[in-house]
Amino acid sequence: MSATLALNALKARTRALGKQILGQNFQLGALGLLAFVVLWESVSRSGWINPIMLPAPSVVARSAVDLIASGELIRHVLSSLWRAFLGFAIGSFLGLALGILMARLPGVHCLLNPLVQIFRAIPSLAFVPLAIFWFGIGEISKIVLIAFGVFFPVWVNTYLGTRDTNPLFSRAAASLGARGWRMLIFLILPAALPFIIAGVRIALGSALVLLVASELTGAQFGVGYLIQLSQQVFRVDHMFVGLITLGLLGFLFDYAFVCGLRKFLPWYGAENGQANGTR
Hints:
By secondary structure, the protein is mostly helical. 85% of the residues lie in helices and 0% in strands. Helix 3 (72-104) runs antiparallel to helix 4 and helix 3 (72-104) packs antiparallel against helix 8. It is globular and about 75 Å long.
């Protein structure tokens, strides 16, 4: 009974310490952001730099409010989100599937590895003109480009995590009768999950980079198109609105991804909480 009470007390203290650390980290992050905005506002209004070339945050904020009120910014964001989500889902699925196949089937690895490595060495942005030439400036070219860029981080991390599963675990599972798909589902994939998670988080950033690149080269809506159009009409404040929107989208995507992991994979949140507590 006393051991149970001690364990519960330890868990409560750990949760309280985690909340305190998260609160401190949030305050420091907010302070750093506020200092950056104040410095930006001061430099823009100091007269040292042309305020048209570097509009103040207050000017950018007013422009953002106007774009939101007119519905233009929301329309651009929704178009970009749809392309990013679809391309990310396709690229992640293909990367996960091929990574598992190449790690578990030596014949598939020998057959496809040279081809995949050659394509991986080519920067994804180099395929932008070719994708437009093949698929036009419609949605397909953008989704294909995003899927192509997302595929490789997910594939390489899935392959390494699946291939490098501790053989002791495999032998222990085999001694208990695990074979085939049971070995894959209940042992290999859970062991490779940290690698897969890392690949997916990297792929999130790649998806945004390729999204903007594809929209800059031909689109009717999208955050990248907003930046390009603003450059043509010399609205630097609108360009900053687009850039800040992209930054916020990237931050929110990563934050939502991590929150989802902590919700459905409690061990991930526990490990990160311990890591933050030791810093």
